[in-house]
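Expect chain and fold; thus:
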Amino acid sequence: MNYAGESVPDTSIVTNNGGRPRASRRPLAIVGMHPKGLELTPWDDDGLEIWLFNEAAQKVEKYPRWDALLQIHRPEVYTSLDNWVNKDHWEWLQQDHGDKRIYMIDVDPRVPNSVKYPLEGVLSLTPYHYLRSSPAMALALAIYLGYTDISLYGSELSSNTEYAYQAINYAFWIGFAHGHGIDLKLRCWQSEFDQPLYGYEGEAQIDRGYFEERFAEQERAWNTSEKTLRTMKEQLDQAMLKAEFDKVGRLSLELQDAALAAGESSGAMAEAGRYSTYVGEISRQEFERVSARALKDGEKVRENMWHAGGKCEYVWNAWRLTGKLDALNQLRAFLRDRTKLAYDTGAMLGIYRENILYMHKYDEVVTAFGGNRALYQVSRPESVDSKEIVMGSVLSLEDVVK
């Protein structure tokens, strides 16, 4: 007889001693290894059957008792003497734990309590090839064995690492259990299943105060960069009056960098100010749309900036060779054009980076809000350098000076 009795088809579970595990319809608690809410587990309820995972049963101070354990890893993993969770795990597995069961990929003669996980039977529950974590495999197994009262503890699949795909799979089996009339009690991960209703209750939102803080931060940066830009312009004018040709060449390049920095602060500040007074909800798609447009527009302005730079180099070289005033005046006009284009290029970069930052912030808010949705992979804003947009291969004034 299997766990579910005669009403459930023969599961053909193979144990190390050749028999089948005892039948049981007791309420079942599947207890994960996440500390959140673990204290809610009713360990003292003798009428409750408890399943654990991997090395958990060895931590008796946290998991006082257990009836079954899932160790769904290959032998080279669970026999390793370098187990970082518990180096004595393999020795523990080889001990006889009475009538307790240790579900494994296959029966291991060295593990007295090993039970072969009935993979084919579990997979027969649905038309899908879909088991992606130990908690999901435990819940699917319980459903297959006919448990009708199941509680879940200690599984908070909220990480952005391996749990991203595991969470979706676990949610599938939770829904499957509910759909098949199982009395499933969720004592963990409740936030995932308490979400705003699409079209009715709105989306998670970035607090407007965040945009106000960003505006104040960018305003301070803009004031500083504008001061630097003005200083660079004054120094360049003085060098021109003194006909310090090489210094003019160097300062003109520094002026471009200063204009880019000031423009970037200006663009970021403008975005923060715009969103701080935005009426209505702001979706993630808005940040995506604006950042993509800024990147595209920035490319066009950047090309014009490099074109203006080429003209500056040509005229600077003519002024250096002739010392004529009309060449100097033309250089001043071209430098004004290039400086403005550099400022505008920086502004596009600032808009782009600021909206990328908001996308990441939005993702954080969604996670904190209880969501566990598929998030777009976007570059971290701090990994974007002005050189990535302001790039080109034209000959610089500094190269000409050399």
Q: What stands out?
A: The longest helix spans residues 325-368.
